[in-house]
Amino acid sequence: MNQTEPESGAAHSRPFLRLFTAPAVITAAIFAVAMLAILQYSVRAHIPGSLDVGGFTLANFAGMLRPLYAWVFIDTVWLCLLTAVLSLIFGYPLAYALVRSRSLFIKSFILIVTVTPLFLGEVVRTYSWIVVLGNNGFINSVLRGTGIIEQPIQLLFTVTGVTIALVHVTLPVVVVMLAAAIAHIDPAYEKAAESLGAGPVRVFLTVTLPLSGPGIVAGLTTAFAWTFSAFATPQLVGGGKVNMVSNLVYQLGFANFNFPFAAALCVVGLALTYVSIAAMRLTLRPLEKVGLH
Amino acid sequence: MKRFLLASAALAVSLWALPANAAEKLVISVWGGSWKDLVEQTVAKKFKEQTGADVEFITGGTIDRLNKAKLAKGNPESDITFTTSHVGWLYANDGLYEQLDMSKIPNAKSLVDQAKISPYHLGTWAYVYTIGYRPDMVPAGVTFESWNDLWKPELKGKISAPDFDASHLVVVSAKLSGADAATWEKGGDKLKALKPNFKAYYANDAASQQLMQNGEAPVQVMLSMNAYHIASQGVPVKLAIPKEGAVLGIDTIGIMKGTKQADLAYKFINIMLDPAVQAEVATMKKGSPVVTNAKLSDDVAKLPGVFTTPEQWNKEALVIDHKLRAEKTGEWRKWFTENVIN
User: Fold this and answer.
1) CB under 8 Å, gap of 24 or more: what pairs does A121-127 form?
2) Which of B170, B165, B166 is nearest to B61 (CA)?
3) Residues 6+ apart with CB under 8 A from B17
């Protein structure tokens, strides 16, 4: 009798729990079925000239044991890390100013500049970068017009160009996450440090920055995971010269009808994302703990 | 009462006199954008005028529509499908197409041989993938008489090609190496040697046009219709027809198995092959008509890649067997991705 009382009490206090969680459960179930379908495809044989798949096989995974695929996975992880770190470096000052600035104009300006890209489609954003980064694009035109360079700098179809465009995609999310973390820091900690004689830089480095640890970890891991699935940006700005896993999935699956191999690439890519994020969280755990004030 | 009965009879007679298909609808699966507009403004317009039936479009990419058709096998969403010649074979191989009754398509008697793709699908218009270039941006002295010219060292970092279909360059490399599409492996080393000349690979028509327009890749394995489209917007692009021939592409039409509108579908295909409609389509897209009796203006007929005579079809078109292409596309694409793109 005693064991059932807390349960009924909990149910009483949250009468709509089941109703409200039902959509989430249904959505999760649909995603799970989709994932199982991909998993199933990854272990089926490809039949050339047909979309039907053959019997069970591990050949798709064996086919990935080539340096080419290893390099694409390594390049993808490297691009994700680079994008996440650069998003943090550029996003932190913006988030800090967004939260701490007393000027409504500055707050509004930062919010508009950082959040507006979220309202543009990925393809529109990416095409804009093609216009900006091209040999006759904005950057090269300005540099040539001012006499700084004579020949255009190659930005399109390079890792640099792809990284710039990817950071533009992830920056708004990182800024919003960091701003939320910074807003949760009790200013009393910083005032206490100041009253003990710490200068503004020391206060920031020893109090503000460590206390925003959870936001930094969340921002880094989100930017990393988000970039891992980037497709349009590396496809269009990379022009086939900078390829990530998603581009390989497209090239070999959708343009090639080899859905089993594309599914196997997805499975390995997903596993790699989980491993990478777990490794990041383990590495950043001390920072996260400091921030849990 | 008598007046009422007379009025009712008159109404019944007038309804009877309306075109038989007035309430019927033909659903057409086609690519979106300018392709849907092309079909809507030419063949569909004439079809509606002649039959009184309505037309509805389902649009999407080549593979998206194929996947959807597979999922709806036996109870198709569309009655008719436009797709490429080799992907049409995938529809046929998967039992998605009706076998065509040619007696119901009288205009098909004028089809060029190259457009008689299979018992299940017929060509509707043709184009070529060939060398497109910006004369103002290629190094002085570089000309394009042969596909071999793409390998010139002066073109290092200047060319682009589609990343979604490697068949053009795979077959061209095989041909230049003394082989053909069936023995394409013999051209593998030749194609790998082209790698330094690639600036980028394009994923769609828009990217192809943009690369040419902004001069990022001033030499391209390019769809003739795309070249003529940007040329009409003032981009100084030219097309070359190499002596080995330009790679022929044919878009096709087939009737979906299980359609309830077979009669209308046959009428639509027959109108598609009407010489006047063919001329209209060729003029709008700067492609080749697939019937011998279509009359084009001299301005269109003289364009490189527009074939109007048997000699042009035979000498200037490099034809890849459509069924072989359907079977090999995946293998070629994977090889190209592994050995050239990456």
Assistant:
1) A122/A169, A122/A232, A122/A233, A123/A232, A123/A236, A125/A165, A125/A168, A125/A169, A125/A233, A126/A165, A126/A232, A126/A233, A126/A236, A126/A237, A127/A236
2) B165
3) none
pLDDT in tens, A235-293: 999 998 999 999 988 888 766 778 899 999 999 999 999 999 899 888 888 877 766 65
- Do B256 and B95 contact (CB within 8 A), yes or no? no
Pick from B44, B320, B7: nearest CA to B182: B320
List, for residues B91-131, the tens digit of each pLDDT value.
Answer: 999 899 999 999 999 999 999 999 999 999 999 999 999 99
- Model confidence, pTM: 0.81
Nearest to B287 by CA among B312, B268, B264, B265: B312
Query: Which residues, numbered 285 to 324 in chain B, qualify as contacts with chain A under a Cβ-Cβ cut-off of 8 Å?
Result: none
Burial tier of A47 (Cβ tally within 10 Å: 0-12, 13-18, 19+):
middle
C-alpha of B317 from chain center: 14
For chain B, say whether A152 makes contact (Cβ under 8 Å): no
- Cα B199 off chain centre by: 26
Assess contact for B133 and B219: CB atoms under 8 A.
Answer: yes
Q: A239 and B160 in contact by Cβ < 8 A?
A: yes
Contact of A165 with A233, CB cutoff 8 Å: yes
Q: Is B169 on the interface with A (CB under 8 A)?
A: no
Chain B residues close to A51, C-beta within 8 Å? 66-67, 70, 90, 94
ipTM of the complex: 0.74
Residue A282: partners with Cβ closer than 8 Å, 6 or more residues away: none
Of the candidates A282, A278, A271, A283, which has an alpha carbon nearest to the alpha carbon of residue A245?
A: A271
| Of residues B93, B160, B334, nearest to A256 (C-beta) | B334
Question: How far is B185 from B91, CA to CA, in rounded Å?
Answer: 27
- Assigned token pair, B213: 């327009």
The radius of gyration of chain B from alpha carbons, rounded to an integer in Å, stands at: 22
Nearest C-alpha in B relative to A255: B164
Residue B7 at interface with chain A, using a CB cutoff of 8 Å:
no
The b/e string for B283-296 (b: 16+ C-beta within 10 A; e otherwise) is: bbbbbbbbbeebeb
Indicate which of A257, A258, A261, A265 best probes the interface with B, i.e. most B CBs within 10 Å of its own CB: A257
